[in-house]
Design goal:
Strand content: over 45%
Number of helices: 0
Radius of gyration: 16 Å
Helix content: under 10%
Order of helices and strands: EEEEEEEEEE
Strand order of the largest sheet: 1-2-4-8-6
Oligomer: single chain
Number of strands: 10
CATH topology: Immunoglobulin-like
Distance between the termini: 43 Å
Largest sheet: 5 strands, antiparallel
Number of domains: 1
Length: 115
């Protein structure tokens, strides 16, 4: 799904990233493509996440005018849970888009236990 942010200055592909089945206890990679459709650069200056298990990479990031880049987050997938949903808030220097809200859902494949 593609999300157009106010004024269509910044386009986020897959702002709600569904991740396929991931093994419990492993690491999932969540990727978002961000396209700057404005006539000036936009700087992504930082992030907060809904879970300490999520680490956003590639920040700070500068998106030059007409540029597309990938933003990556690594999620440590816990043991003993079914599926997890998390959120990421990206902060920008663009007054019309101070925060970009991203989400992800990870389906967790449980490890088989022997008896």
């Amino acid at each position: 799904m593609t999300t157009f942010l106010p004024g269509e200055r910044l386009v986020v592909e897959a702002s709600n990233a569904p991740i396929g089945r991931v093994q419990a206890g492993s690491e999932a990679i969540v990727r978002y493509r961000l396209s700057n459709r404005s006539g000036r650069q936009i700087k992504l200056v930082g992030a907060t996440t809904s879970c300490s298990c999520t680490m956003v990479e590639n920040l700070p990031m500068i998106l030059a005018a007409s540029m597309t880049k990938e933003l990556t987050a690594k999620v440590d997938v816990p043991e003993g849970k079914a599926d997890i949903t998390g959120s990421i808030q990206i902060y920008t220097d663009e007054p019309s888009i101070p925060v970009i809200n991203l989400t992800y859902t990870i389906r967790i494949a449980q490890t088989a236990t022997s008896h």
